[in-house]
Structure formats: C-alpha cells, structure tokens
Recover the amino acids of this structure.
C-alpha cells in the first residue's frame, strides 16, 4: 500500500515542510512545522484513509519517523 510522506527538513535557516518532493510551507521552529504536518495528516486520513508518514530530517542526518497521534 502506498503512503503519503510529509517531511520536515530542519537546517540553520528554519524548517521546510514537504509533501513528497513538493514544497508546502516554511516555518521558523520544528514544533510549528510538526503541528502543521500532524494537522495535514489528520485531514488526509479523514478524507481518503491511506496512511500518512511524517518524518523529521535534520541537516546532514537521515530522516526519522515522528508519531502522529
């Protein structure tokens, strides 16, 4: 089953929220970017149902999954 991937990229300039490869938003803090990602994941699950994966990636590191609940 395919899942939607929302990724928060954190670097020295702030955070960028991506939906796959598509830019969605820019935030100054990780907490605000994760809050937006969780909101989008909840809306997506209510509308369509397939799973959504939220990841946090710090500059130069591998992405790690983030709990949505």
């Amino acid at each position: 089953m395919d899942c939607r991937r929302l990724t928060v990229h954190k670097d020295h300039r702030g955070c960028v929220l991506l939906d796959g490869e598509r830019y969605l938003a820019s935030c100054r803090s990780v907490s605000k970017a994760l809050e937006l990602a969780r909101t989008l994941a909840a809306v997506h699950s209510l509308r369509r149902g397939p799973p959504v994966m939220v990841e946090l990636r710090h500059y130069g590191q591998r992405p790690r999954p983030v709990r949505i609940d």
Q: What stands out?
A: The radius of gyration is 11 Å. The mean pLDDT is 89. Residues 15 and 32 are 9 Å apart (CA to CA). The longest strand covers residues 4-11.
